[in-house]
C-alpha cells in the first residue's frame, strides 16, 4: 500500500511539472574574439538594430524591449568562417528587417515552441564585426 502511495505521488508531481519551453539555436560562424550576449529587459526583445560595414559584414547588434505589440520569432541570415554577413529578422506580426550582404552559408533560427520568442542573442565579436551568432528562445510570462 505504501509503495502504491509513493508511485501515485511521483506520477502526480510529474504531471504538475511545467513543460520546458526554452530552446537554443546553436551559434554559427567562426567564433573568434570576445563573447557577448544581449537581451531585452523582462526577457522579451521587441526591437533590434543592426549595423553593417558598407557592403560587407555585420558590425554590431543592439536590442531593446518596449510595449509588447510584437516579438521576434525568427532570425535568419548568412555567415562565412570569419563574419556574419546578413541578417533577416521576422516579427510576430510578419514585419521584417533585412540587413547586410546575402553571401556564403545560410542559417535559420526559430523556436521549437510556437509561443516562444527571442529572449537573447549571443555570440562573439572581434572589434571589427560579429564573428558568430546564436539565439535563445522562450515563452515569457506575457505569453503564458
What does the model show?
This protein has a four-stranded antiparallel β-sheet with strand order 1-10-9-2, with no helix packed on it. The protein has a four-stranded antiparallel β-sheet with strand order 7-6-5-8, with no helix packed on it. A two-stranded antiparallel sheet has the order 3-4. By secondary structure, it is mainly beta. It has one helix and ten strands, in the order H-E-E-E-E-E-E-E-E-E-E. Helices cover about 10% and strands about 50% of the residues. The radius of gyration is 19 Å and the shape is globular.
SSE topology:
Elements: H1 2-16, E1 23-29, E2 34-39, E3 47-52, E4 58-64, E5 72-79, E6 84-91, E7 96-100, E8 105-109, E9 117-125, E10 130-138
GO molecular function: carbohydrate binding
Keywords: Lectin, Signal
Protein name: Jacalin-type lectin domain-containing protein
